[in-house]
Amino acid sequence: MSNILVNGGLGFIGSETVVALINSGYNPIVVDDLSNSKIAVLDRIETITGKRPTFIQANCTDYAAMDKVFTENKIDGIIHFAAFKAVGESVQKPIEYYSNNLKSSLTTLELMKKHGVRNFIFSSSATVYGCAKEMPLYENNETGDATNPYGETKVMNERILVDVAKAMPELNIAILRYFNPIGAHPSGLLGEDPNGIPNNLMPYISQVSIGRLPCLSIFGDDYPTPDGTGIRDYIHVLDLAEGHVAAMKKLESNSGLVIYNLGTGKGTSVKELVKAFEDANGVKIPVVIKPRRAGDVAENYANCDKAFKELGWKARFTIVDACRDSYNFQKKNPKGIE
Ligand code: UFG
Predict the structure, then answer these.
(1) Is residue 89 within 6 Å of ligand 1 at its C-beta?
(2) Which DSSP string do the residues of 164-176 spell out, in sequence order?
(3) Number of CB atoms found within 10 A of residue 196's CB
(4) Contact 93, 153 (CB under 8 A)
(5) pLDDT truncated to tens, each residue of the chain (338 aa)?
(6) Alpha carbon distance 202, 222 (integer Å)
(7) Which run of H or of E encompasses 236?
(8) Mutate to test the pocket of ligand 1, among 90, 129, 232, 269 (most ligand atoms within 8 A of CB)
(9) Which ligand 1 atom sits nearest the alpha carbon of residue 85?
Protein backbone atom coordinates (compact mmCIF):
# COMPACT_ATOMS: atom_id res chain seq x y z
CA MET A 1 0.00 0.00 0.00
CA SER A 2 1.37 3.42 -0.95
CA ASN A 3 1.96 5.93 1.83
CA ILE A 4 0.96 9.46 0.87
CA LEU A 5 2.14 12.40 2.97
CA VAL A 6 -0.70 14.93 3.05
CA ASN A 7 0.52 18.34 4.21
CA GLY A 8 -2.43 20.36 5.46
CA GLY A 9 -4.55 17.21 5.50
CA LEU A 10 -7.10 18.41 8.06
CA GLY A 11 -8.31 21.43 6.06
CA PHE A 12 -11.39 21.72 3.89
CA ILE A 13 -9.95 20.15 0.73
CA GLY A 14 -7.21 18.18 2.51
CA SER A 15 -9.57 16.25 4.79
CA GLU A 16 -11.86 15.30 1.92
CA THR A 17 -8.81 14.15 -0.05
CA VAL A 18 -7.62 12.03 2.89
CA VAL A 19 -11.02 10.28 2.85
CA ALA A 20 -10.77 9.74 -0.93
CA LEU A 21 -7.22 8.35 -0.58
CA ILE A 22 -8.29 5.88 2.13
CA ASN A 23 -11.29 4.80 0.05
CA SER A 24 -8.91 4.18 -2.88
CA GLY A 25 -6.57 1.97 -0.87
CA TYR A 26 -3.85 4.52 -0.05
CA ASN A 27 -2.39 5.06 3.39
CA PRO A 28 -2.36 8.81 4.10
CA ILE A 29 0.07 10.28 6.63
CA VAL A 30 -1.38 13.60 7.68
CA VAL A 31 0.68 16.61 8.74
CA ASP A 32 -1.16 19.73 9.89
CA ASP A 33 -0.27 22.51 12.32
CA LEU A 34 -3.97 23.09 13.22
CA SER A 35 -3.57 26.81 12.49
CA ASN A 36 -6.71 26.76 10.33
CA SER A 37 -8.20 23.35 11.13
CA LYS A 38 -9.45 21.32 14.07
CA ILE A 39 -8.13 18.08 15.51
CA ALA A 40 -11.74 16.78 15.64
CA VAL A 41 -11.48 16.42 11.85
CA LEU A 42 -9.24 13.39 12.45
CA ASP A 43 -12.01 11.63 14.45
CA ARG A 44 -14.48 12.48 11.72
CA ILE A 45 -12.24 11.01 8.99
CA GLU A 46 -12.11 7.85 11.13
CA THR A 47 -15.92 7.81 11.52
CA ILE A 48 -16.38 8.07 7.74
CA THR A 49 -13.69 5.63 6.62
CA GLY A 50 -13.25 3.33 9.63
CA LYS A 51 -9.55 4.12 9.53
CA ARG A 52 -7.60 6.61 11.61
CA PRO A 53 -4.76 8.04 9.54
CA THR A 54 -1.35 8.60 11.09
CA PHE A 55 -1.30 12.24 12.24
CA ILE A 56 1.65 14.46 13.07
CA GLN A 57 1.03 17.98 14.33
CA ALA A 58 3.77 20.04 12.69
CA ASN A 59 4.27 23.16 10.66
CA CYS A 60 5.55 22.34 7.18
CA THR A 61 8.13 25.14 7.35
CA ASP A 62 9.80 23.34 10.29
CA TYR A 63 12.64 21.43 8.61
CA ALA A 64 13.59 19.35 11.66
CA ALA A 65 10.01 18.28 12.41
CA MET A 66 9.36 17.44 8.77
CA ASP A 67 12.69 15.60 8.41
CA LYS A 68 11.54 13.38 11.27
CA VAL A 69 8.27 12.64 9.44
CA PHE A 70 10.22 11.59 6.31
CA THR A 71 12.69 9.55 8.38
CA GLU A 72 10.07 7.68 10.40
CA ASN A 73 7.72 6.91 7.50
CA LYS A 74 8.36 5.41 4.09
CA ILE A 75 6.73 8.01 1.86
CA ASP A 76 5.74 7.18 -1.72
CA GLY A 77 4.00 10.40 -2.67
CA ILE A 78 3.16 13.84 -1.34
CA ILE A 79 0.11 16.09 -1.64
CA HIS A 80 0.94 19.61 -0.50
CA PHE A 81 -2.11 21.63 0.59
CA ALA A 82 -0.52 23.48 3.51
CA ALA A 83 -0.72 27.22 2.81
CA PHE A 84 -2.36 30.46 3.88
CA LYS A 85 -5.27 31.15 1.53
CA ALA A 86 -7.18 34.34 2.33
CA VAL A 87 -6.88 36.78 -0.56
CA GLY A 88 -7.70 39.94 1.45
CA GLU A 89 -5.47 39.01 4.38
CA SER A 90 -2.59 38.41 1.96
CA VAL A 91 -2.75 42.06 0.89
CA GLN A 92 -2.40 43.11 4.55
CA LYS A 93 0.26 40.51 5.42
CA PRO A 94 2.41 39.94 2.32
CA ILE A 95 5.54 38.96 4.28
CA GLU A 96 3.69 36.26 6.20
CA TYR A 97 2.09 34.94 3.00
CA TYR A 98 5.26 34.82 0.90
CA SER A 99 7.24 33.39 3.80
CA ASN A 100 4.80 30.67 4.79
CA ASN A 101 3.59 29.63 1.35
CA LEU A 102 7.07 29.44 -0.17
CA LYS A 103 8.93 28.01 2.84
CA SER A 104 6.43 25.20 3.37
CA SER A 105 6.68 23.95 -0.21
CA LEU A 106 10.45 24.49 -0.45
CA THR A 107 11.06 22.63 2.81
CA THR A 108 8.93 19.76 1.52
CA LEU A 109 10.80 19.73 -1.81
CA GLU A 110 14.19 19.73 -0.06
CA LEU A 111 13.14 16.77 2.05
CA MET A 112 11.59 15.04 -0.92
CA LYS A 113 14.97 15.23 -2.65
CA LYS A 114 16.88 14.16 0.45
CA HIS A 115 14.64 11.13 1.05
CA GLY A 116 14.24 10.14 -2.61
CA VAL A 117 10.46 10.64 -2.91
CA ARG A 118 9.40 11.04 -6.54
CA ASN A 119 5.70 11.96 -6.67
CA PHE A 120 4.44 15.42 -5.67
CA ILE A 121 1.05 17.10 -6.08
CA PHE A 122 0.76 20.85 -5.55
CA SER A 123 -2.46 22.73 -4.72
CA SER A 124 -2.58 25.61 -7.14
CA SER A 125 -5.44 27.86 -8.10
CA ALA A 126 -7.27 29.43 -11.01
CA THR A 127 -5.88 32.66 -9.58
CA VAL A 128 -2.65 32.03 -11.56
CA TYR A 129 -4.51 32.98 -14.77
CA GLY A 130 -4.93 36.56 -13.49
CA CYS A 131 -7.31 38.78 -15.43
CA ALA A 132 -7.70 36.60 -18.51
CA LYS A 133 -9.74 38.18 -21.31
CA GLU A 134 -11.27 35.01 -22.71
CA MET A 135 -13.12 32.15 -21.08
CA PRO A 136 -12.85 29.23 -20.61
CA LEU A 137 -9.33 28.99 -19.21
CA TYR A 138 -7.00 26.35 -20.64
CA GLU A 139 -3.90 24.98 -18.93
CA ASN A 140 -1.65 26.44 -21.64
CA ASN A 141 -3.02 29.96 -21.20
CA GLU A 142 -0.53 32.51 -20.01
CA THR A 143 -0.17 32.67 -16.22
CA GLY A 144 1.67 34.92 -13.83
CA ASP A 145 -0.37 38.03 -13.30
CA ALA A 146 -2.13 37.27 -10.04
CA THR A 147 -3.84 40.25 -8.45
CA ASN A 148 -2.73 39.69 -4.83
CA PRO A 149 0.15 38.22 -2.76
CA TYR A 150 -1.75 34.96 -2.11
CA GLY A 151 -2.13 34.45 -5.85
CA GLU A 152 1.52 35.39 -6.44
CA THR A 153 2.60 32.64 -4.02
CA LYS A 154 0.77 30.16 -6.26
CA VAL A 155 2.44 31.60 -9.38
CA MET A 156 5.88 31.49 -7.73
CA ASN A 157 5.40 27.94 -6.49
CA GLU A 158 4.38 26.85 -9.98
CA ARG A 159 7.56 28.44 -11.42
CA ILE A 160 9.68 26.68 -8.81
CA LEU A 161 8.08 23.35 -9.71
CA VAL A 162 8.68 23.86 -13.44
CA ASP A 163 12.38 24.48 -12.73
CA VAL A 164 12.60 21.52 -10.36
CA ALA A 165 10.99 19.26 -12.97
CA LYS A 166 13.55 20.40 -15.58
CA ALA A 167 16.49 19.76 -13.28
CA MET A 168 15.17 16.44 -11.94
CA PRO A 169 13.35 14.65 -14.77
CA GLU A 170 12.98 11.56 -12.58
CA LEU A 171 10.37 13.43 -10.52
CA ASN A 172 6.64 13.30 -11.24
CA ILE A 173 4.89 16.55 -10.36
CA ALA A 174 1.23 17.50 -10.74
CA ILE A 175 0.14 21.12 -10.51
CA LEU A 176 -3.63 21.14 -9.88
CA ARG A 177 -5.39 24.45 -10.48
CA TYR A 178 -8.55 24.48 -8.42
CA PHE A 179 -11.53 26.58 -9.36
CA ASN A 180 -14.09 27.40 -6.62
CA PRO A 181 -14.54 24.47 -4.22
CA ILE A 182 -17.93 24.23 -2.48
CA GLY A 183 -20.07 21.50 -0.92
CA ALA A 184 -19.23 19.19 1.94
CA HIS A 185 -19.10 15.51 2.80
CA PRO A 186 -22.68 14.19 2.47
CA SER A 187 -22.47 12.84 6.05
CA GLY A 188 -22.25 16.41 7.32
CA LEU A 189 -19.06 15.49 9.19
CA LEU A 190 -16.57 17.38 6.99
CA GLY A 191 -16.94 20.76 5.34
CA GLU A 192 -15.66 24.29 5.12
CA ASP A 193 -15.19 25.83 8.55
CA PRO A 194 -13.69 29.30 8.16
CA ASN A 195 -12.47 31.33 11.12
CA GLY A 196 -14.49 34.52 11.65
CA ILE A 197 -16.67 36.05 8.96
CA PRO A 198 -16.36 34.02 5.75
CA ASN A 199 -14.68 35.63 2.74
CA ASN A 200 -16.01 33.14 0.23
CA LEU A 201 -19.49 32.97 -1.18
CA MET A 202 -20.73 29.49 -0.22
CA PRO A 203 -19.79 29.55 3.48
CA TYR A 204 -21.34 33.02 3.64
CA ILE A 205 -24.60 31.80 2.08
CA SER A 206 -24.75 28.80 4.40
CA GLN A 207 -24.18 30.92 7.51
CA VAL A 208 -26.98 33.25 6.37
CA SER A 209 -29.21 30.22 5.79
CA ILE A 210 -29.11 29.21 9.46
CA GLY A 211 -29.38 32.79 10.74
CA ARG A 212 -25.77 33.07 11.92
CA LEU A 213 -25.37 36.06 9.56
CA PRO A 214 -28.29 38.35 8.66
CA CYS A 215 -27.89 38.75 4.91
CA LEU A 216 -25.61 38.14 1.95
CA SER A 217 -23.93 41.09 0.27
CA ILE A 218 -23.67 40.54 -3.48
CA PHE A 219 -20.55 42.33 -4.59
CA GLY A 220 -21.65 44.01 -7.82
CA ASP A 221 -24.62 43.44 -10.14
CA ASP A 222 -23.21 45.55 -12.98
CA TYR A 223 -20.72 43.08 -14.47
CA PRO A 224 -20.99 42.32 -18.20
CA THR A 225 -22.67 38.96 -17.45
CA PRO A 226 -26.28 37.92 -18.18
CA ASP A 227 -27.59 38.83 -14.70
CA GLY A 228 -24.84 41.31 -13.85
CA THR A 229 -23.26 39.23 -11.06
CA GLY A 230 -19.87 37.52 -11.13
CA ILE A 231 -19.52 34.08 -12.73
CA ARG A 232 -17.33 31.33 -11.24
CA ASP A 233 -16.73 27.63 -11.76
CA TYR A 234 -17.99 26.00 -8.55
CA ILE A 235 -16.79 22.44 -8.03
CA HIS A 236 -17.97 20.01 -5.35
CA VAL A 237 -15.15 19.30 -2.93
CA LEU A 238 -15.73 15.53 -3.30
CA ASP A 239 -14.99 15.84 -7.02
CA LEU A 240 -11.90 17.88 -6.24
CA ALA A 241 -10.72 15.21 -3.79
CA GLU A 242 -11.16 12.50 -6.44
CA GLY A 243 -9.10 14.65 -8.80
CA HIS A 244 -6.15 14.24 -6.43
CA VAL A 245 -6.47 10.46 -6.41
CA ALA A 246 -6.62 10.45 -10.23
CA ALA A 247 -3.55 12.73 -10.38
CA MET A 248 -1.60 10.49 -7.97
CA LYS A 249 -2.32 7.50 -10.21
CA LYS A 250 -1.07 9.50 -13.19
CA LEU A 251 2.18 10.32 -11.37
CA GLU A 252 2.64 6.63 -10.61
CA SER A 253 2.84 6.03 -14.37
CA ASN A 254 5.98 8.24 -14.47
CA SER A 255 4.26 11.23 -16.00
CA GLY A 256 6.93 13.87 -15.34
CA LEU A 257 5.41 17.35 -14.86
CA VAL A 258 1.67 17.64 -15.55
CA ILE A 259 -0.76 20.53 -15.08
CA TYR A 260 -4.55 20.24 -14.83
CA ASN A 261 -7.52 22.51 -14.25
CA LEU A 262 -9.91 20.99 -11.73
CA GLY A 263 -13.29 22.59 -12.28
CA THR A 264 -16.60 21.70 -13.90
CA GLY A 265 -16.21 23.69 -17.12
CA LYS A 266 -19.45 25.50 -16.33
CA GLY A 267 -19.90 29.03 -15.04
CA THR A 268 -22.53 29.93 -12.41
CA SER A 269 -23.39 33.47 -11.34
CA VAL A 270 -23.76 34.65 -7.74
CA LYS A 271 -27.51 35.05 -8.21
CA GLU A 272 -27.77 31.57 -9.77
CA LEU A 273 -25.91 30.01 -6.86
CA VAL A 274 -28.15 31.77 -4.33
CA LYS A 275 -31.25 30.56 -6.20
CA ALA A 276 -29.90 27.00 -6.41
CA PHE A 277 -29.23 27.05 -2.66
CA GLU A 278 -32.74 28.32 -1.91
CA ASP A 279 -34.39 25.74 -4.19
CA ALA A 280 -32.27 22.82 -3.01
CA ASN A 281 -32.89 23.50 0.67
CA GLY A 282 -36.25 25.28 0.85
CA VAL A 283 -34.75 28.33 2.56
CA LYS A 284 -34.68 32.04 1.78
CA ILE A 285 -31.36 33.92 1.55
CA PRO A 286 -31.84 37.67 2.06
CA VAL A 287 -29.46 39.61 -0.21
CA VAL A 288 -28.35 43.19 -0.58
CA ILE A 289 -26.47 44.53 -3.61
CA LYS A 290 -23.16 46.19 -2.72
CA PRO A 291 -20.41 47.70 -4.88
CA ARG A 292 -17.93 45.43 -6.63
CA ARG A 293 -15.22 43.89 -4.43
CA ALA A 294 -11.69 45.08 -5.29
CA GLY A 295 -9.73 42.56 -7.35
CA ASP A 296 -12.76 40.54 -8.52
CA VAL A 297 -13.11 39.58 -12.18
CA ALA A 298 -16.44 39.26 -14.04
CA GLU A 299 -15.97 35.67 -15.12
CA ASN A 300 -13.68 32.77 -14.28
CA TYR A 301 -14.30 29.23 -15.46
CA ALA A 302 -12.28 26.29 -16.66
CA ASN A 303 -11.95 24.06 -19.63
CA CYS A 304 -11.40 20.64 -18.04
CA ASP A 305 -11.00 18.45 -21.13
CA LYS A 306 -7.33 17.79 -20.39
CA ALA A 307 -8.03 16.23 -16.98
CA PHE A 308 -10.73 14.05 -18.55
CA LYS A 309 -8.50 12.93 -21.44
CA GLU A 310 -5.40 12.25 -19.38
CA LEU A 311 -6.77 11.31 -15.97
CA GLY A 312 -10.20 9.99 -16.86
CA TRP A 313 -11.48 12.43 -14.25
CA LYS A 314 -14.39 14.78 -14.47
CA ALA A 315 -16.70 16.45 -11.98
CA ARG A 316 -19.78 14.31 -11.27
CA PHE A 317 -21.71 16.39 -8.75
CA THR A 318 -23.98 19.31 -9.59
CA ILE A 319 -24.35 22.74 -8.02
CA VAL A 320 -27.58 21.46 -6.44
CA ASP A 321 -25.71 18.53 -4.81
CA ALA A 322 -23.13 20.97 -3.46
CA CYS A 323 -25.81 23.36 -2.12
CA ARG A 324 -27.56 20.48 -0.36
CA ASP A 325 -24.31 19.19 1.17
CA SER A 326 -23.11 22.64 2.28
CA TYR A 327 -26.46 23.29 4.00
CA ASN A 328 -26.45 19.86 5.64
CA PHE A 329 -22.94 20.48 7.01
CA GLN A 330 -23.87 23.95 8.24
CA LYS A 331 -27.03 22.70 9.98
CA LYS A 332 -25.14 19.88 11.69
CA ASN A 333 -22.26 22.20 12.65
CA PRO A 334 -23.91 25.58 13.28
CA LYS A 335 -20.82 26.93 15.04
CA GLY A 336 -18.37 25.06 12.84
CA ILE A 337 -16.46 21.92 13.80
CA GLU A 338 -16.10 21.86 17.58
N1 UFG B 1 -19.22 37.14 -3.51
C2 UFG B 1 -20.29 37.92 -3.10
N3 UFG B 1 -20.49 38.06 -1.77
C4 UFG B 1 -19.70 37.47 -0.81
C5 UFG B 1 -18.60 36.70 -1.24
C6 UFG B 1 -18.39 36.56 -2.60
O7 UFG B 1 -21.03 38.46 -3.91
O8 UFG B 1 -19.94 37.66 0.39
C9 UFG B 1 -18.99 36.93 -4.96
C10 UFG B 1 -17.67 37.44 -5.46
O11 UFG B 1 -17.75 38.79 -5.80
C12 UFG B 1 -17.43 36.51 -6.64
C13 UFG B 1 -18.07 35.20 -6.20
O14 UFG B 1 -18.98 35.54 -5.17
O15 UFG B 1 -18.13 36.97 -7.77
C16 UFG B 1 -17.08 34.18 -5.66
O17 UFG B 1 -16.33 34.77 -4.63
P18 UFG B 1 -15.43 33.88 -3.63
O19 UFG B 1 -14.81 34.83 -2.65
O20 UFG B 1 -16.20 32.74 -3.10
O21 UFG B 1 -14.35 33.26 -4.60
P22 UFG B 1 -13.30 33.97 -5.57
O23 UFG B 1 -13.64 33.52 -6.94
O24 UFG B 1 -13.16 35.39 -5.34
O25 UFG B 1 -11.96 33.33 -5.01
C26 UFG B 1 -11.65 31.99 -5.26
C27 UFG B 1 -10.75 31.44 -4.16
C28 UFG B 1 -9.40 32.08 -4.20
C29 UFG B 1 -8.84 32.09 -5.59
C30 UFG B 1 -9.82 32.71 -6.55
C31 UFG B 1 -9.36 32.76 -7.97
O32 UFG B 1 -11.32 31.64 -2.89
O33 UFG B 1 -8.55 31.31 -3.38
O34 UFG B 1 -11.03 31.96 -6.49
O35 UFG B 1 -9.16 31.49 -8.45
F36 UFG B 1 -7.70 32.83 -5.61
Answers:
(1) no
(2) HHHH-TT-EEEEE
(3) 6
(4) no
(5) 899 999 999 999 999 999 999 999 999 999 999 999 999 999 999 999 999 999 999 999 999 999 999 999 999 999 999 999 999 999 999 999 999 999 999 999 999 999 999 999 999 999 999 988 899 999 999 999 898 999 999 999 999 999 999 999 999 999 999 999 999 999 999 999 998 999 999 999 999 999 999 999 999 999 999 999 999 999 999 999 999 999 999 999 999 999 999 999 999 999 999 999 999 999 999 999 999 998 888 999 999 999 999 999 999 999 999 999 999 999 999 999 98
(6) 21
(7) strand 234-236
(8) 232
(9) 33
What b/e readout covers 97-107, taking b as 16+ CB neighbours within 10 angstroms? bbebbbebbbb
pTM > 0.85: yes or no: yes
- Residues 6+ positions from 282 with CB-CB distance below 8 Å: none
DSSP helix/strand/coil, 109: helix
Q: Are strands 231-232 and 268-269 parallel, antiparallel or unpaired?
A: antiparallel
Whether 127 is in the pocket of ligand 1, judged by its Cβ within 6 Å, is yes
CA of 73 from ligand 1 middle (Å) equals 38
Task: Examine the residue annotation and report whether 150 is marked as an active-site residue of this protein.
Answer: yes
Cis omega (within 30 of 0) for bond into 194: no
Q: Do the beta carbons of residue 104 and residue 116 sit within 8 Å? A: no
